[in-house]
Design a protein that fits this description.
mainly alpha, 3 helices
Length: about 90
Amino acid sequence: MKIPPQEAARIAALARLQLPEDKLALFAGQFEDILGYMDQLGEVDTTGVEPMYSPAEHATVFRGDAAEKRVRRDDVLANAPETDGTFFVVPKIV
């Protein structure tokens, strides 16, 4: 399928690309290559082939969604420039 530079410019505009005039022919050629490859894939006989939903065939490991305390309050407050012993103290912003 031959893509003229005007069509390449229209496609580039739809993709919000600003291509200079000298690059339109290159873009059209690359677009032709992509469409040619898609045509090749469309000709492949896939009857009897089950759909593949993921290329990785492994089970996803899930962890339980439970809150847990990993850090002590004193360790967190040790990083603050100023605390009141329980919370961070920050400047008042109005």
